[in-house]
Amino acid sequence: MTLGQLVAPITDADVDWVIELMGLEALDEPRRNFLRSMDTVDLAACPGSGKTTLVVAKLAILARHWKSRMQGICVLSHTNAAREEIEKRLGGTEVGQRLLRFPHYIDTIHGFTSRFLASPWLRSKGISLQAIDDEATQKARRRELTYREHLGAQSAFEKKFKSLHSLRIRSADFDQPLGAEDIGFAPHTATYKSVVKSLSGAAKAGYFCFDEVFVLGHALLDQGESVGAALRLRFPCVLIDEMQDTQPDQAGVLQRVFPRDDPGIRVIRVGDPNQEIFEKNTPLLDPFPGPGRQLEIASSFRFDQAIASIANPFAYVPITNGLIGLRAPRAPGRTPNTIIVFPDEDATGVLDEYGKLVLKHLPAETRKAGVYAIGAVHRLENYKANQYPKALEHYWPSYRYDTTKTSFKPRTFAEGAHIARRYAMRDPTASSSVELLASCLANLGLLAFPGSQVQLRSRYQASVVQKLTTKPKAFAWYRECLQQILFVPSAVTEQHWVKVITPKLLLLAAALYDAEGVTADLQGHQYLAWEPAATATEAGEGGGSLINTYRFQDGADGVDIQMSSIHSEKGKTHAATLILETFRKTHFIQKFMPLLEGGKAATKRPPDSAKKDMMLMYVGMTRPTHMLCLAARQSSLGEGAAREKRRVALETAGWSILDLTE
C-alpha cells in the first residue's frame, strides 16, 4: 500500500493533537504545512527552528493513524537524535512506543545499509560478519601479514607520505578488493600484493571499516531490482534527517533504494543547505534541496533578530525574506554582539576580554548553556609568520586540536584518569569513566608488551572484565584502581600515582596481555608518566572539552570558555559564541569584512569559491542564544579614514567594537 492508503489525509485537528501531546507552542503556518504534507518533499529548516521536534511530531501523527502491521516508516540520519527525541518526548505514550518498534525502523544510514543490504549480501557469500569497526578491522588486516610483510608495506607507504590505514575496499570481489583504484604501487609489486592479502583476508574473515558497508550494500543491489523493490514495499515512507550532511556514498545507496521520483513511495528529506560544512569528494547526483516540492522554515527560536540579521548575509543558499530570530529582543545596552579587535602580532589577550564581556552581560544561569570560542582552523601546521593567528593555539598555547576527533585518546594514562574522574562527577553513572580507563589500560598493554598476541575488542570494559575474571587477583587490583581513581573524595596526587597506582597498572596490563614476568617496554613507562589535571572547574561534554577549556577568573567570579573547531559545534547551542580569526588561504574573518558591514556587499550573489567559508561562518554565527562575538586583527579594519568608515558601517550593522589596540 502507498502512504495515501496507509494514512488518512493529515488535518489541522491532527496538528493540534500533536501540539497538545508534545506540549509545543502554537505553530506558524510553515511548520503546520510540513506536518500536514503527505508528499515527497524537501524541508530546508534554519538553525534553532525546532527541526528535530517537528520531525518527531510528524512521525507521531503518521504513527497515530498507521494502518499496516507489516509496512512501516523508515527514519534515517547520521546520529540517533531522532530516536532519542522520540524516547524523550513520546517514550511514555502509546504512539511513541509504536514508532520505536516493528514495523517502523529508526537508525543511522550506516545502520540501515548494514542491516538490510551488507549483512544479507555477506550471508549469501557464506561470510559471517564479525565487526564494522575501523580499529578492529585494522587489527584484523595486520594479522593477515607477517611482520616482514607489514613492515615492508608500511615503509613503502610512508615513503610516499601515505598511510596503510587509509586503504579501503573498493570492490565486493574480495580477491581483488582494490578494484581499479590506483594506490601508487603496481599490481606486480610486493607492496601491492601485501595490501591485497591484508584487505582480502580481513574481509573474508568478516571485518570491515565503517564506510565499506556501502560497497557491500551496492553489491546486493547489483543482484537485481527486486532488492530495492522489496525495501520500498517494506517502507513506503522514508524520512531522512540532516540531509545536507549526506555523503555521496550514502546518497548513492539511498537513491537506489528510495528514488524520489518513484510515485509509490514518499521521501521526506529534512536539513539545512546552509550548514553543508563537511567535505564531499563529489557533488550529490540528487542535490538537497532538489527539484520538486520544497518547504522552508526561516525562523529560529534560538536567537533574537539582532543575531539573525548579522548571520543572514552568510546564508550561501538565500533564505526567502531572510533569517528570522524569534527570541525576545534584549534590553537596551545588554549583551552586545561585539567585534574584539586585537593587535596583528598578539592574540593572547582576546580570551580574557571575551571572558570579561560574558561575566558583565550574561548571568550565571544563562552561562550554563556553555560559553565557547571556536575557529575555522584549529590545527596548527605548516605555519608561516604572515598567517598569524593561524589556529586556536595562537590564542591559547595549551589548546590541543586532536581532542575534537571522535577517535580521541588521552595522551597519557594520567590524562585519561583526570578526564574519567570528571566524567564520574558529571554523569549519573560511571560507565563512561570506566570505559575510558579500560581503554587506557588496553593501550598501556599494547605499548608495554608489543610482543603479546592477545587481541581485545573495542568494547574495552567488557573485554577487560572477561579477561581478568580468569585471574581473580588481577581483577581485584583492577577494582582497586577504579576505586582509587574515580571514587575517592580528593583527586589523585602525583605521589599516590607514582607510588601506588602505576605499579598496579603495569601488573594489570601484564595480566591482561598474558605478559606476566615480561619486562615492560619503555613506551609503557612513558605512557604512565604523571601530569596534573587541567585547570577547568566545570565538566564539559567530552574528553576534548575537558582539556580544551580556558578558565577566565575575575576576583570571585569566573567563566569556563570551551574552545573547539566550528565543525565540532555544528548542531549545538551556546549561550555565547566567539568566532576567532584563523587562516584558511587568507585570514578567515578579514575576508568577510564587507559582508559584516552589510550594505551592497551583503546582497550580492557570492562566488562558488566562497561557499565553504560562508557556511562555516553561518554555522558559527547561529550557535549562540544571547551573545555573538568575533575576534579580528587590527589591520582588518584598515587605517585612517577607511578605518573610521568601516567602524561606522560595522556599528550600523549591529556590532559593538572593543578595540584592544586603543
UniProtKB/TrEMBL annotation:
Entries under Pfam families matching the protein: UvrD-helicase (PF00580)
GO molecular function, one term: hydrolase activity
Source domain of life: Bacteria
Start and end residues of each UvrD-like helicase ATP-binding domain: 24-310
Keywords carried by this UniProt record: ATP-binding, Helicase, Hydrolase, Nucleotide-binding
GO biological process: recombinational repair
Binding residues for ATP: 45-52
Protein name: DNA 3'-5' helicase II
Organism: Ectopseudomonas guguanensis
Organismal lineage: Bacteria, Pseudomonadati, Pseudomonadota, Gammaproteobacteria, Pseudomonadales
